[in-house]
Design goal:
This protein has one helix at about 55-75; strands at about 15, 20-30, 35-40, 45, 50-55. By secondary structure, it is an alpha+beta fold. Strands 4-3-2-1-5 form a 5-stranded antiparallel β-sheet, with no helix packed on it. Strand 3 and strand 4 form a beta hairpin. The longest helix is centred in the C-terminal third of the chain and has 17 residues, at about 55-75.
């Protein structure tokens, strides 16, 4: 039987913190909070587990392309 429920993205996957609107990589969970890191690196932020959602295909492509372009500009 198929479920309509989406599972929360796992560690290492891109996700959106719907409370802040920020997109990042799920780094782990500590103390009932999910740690997220910006796609291009930087300081982690804490998010509530209920506000973490999977990205749409369009959002994921945009986030990956933005990171790739940023790395290219930086010579990486």
């Amino acid at each position: 039987m198929a479920s309509n429920q989406q599972t929360r993205p796992g560690i290492g996957e891109l996700a959106k913190d719907s409370a802040s609107g920020r997109i990042g990589v799920v780094m782990g969970e500590i103390g009932g909070r999910v740690q997220m890191r910006p796609v291009r690196g930087g300081r982690e932020w804490d998010a509530m587990p209920g506000s973490i959602v999977a990205l749409s295909a369009r959002e994921e492509l945009s986030a990956r392309l933005s990171a790739r372009n940023g790395n290219s500009r930086a010579g990486l």
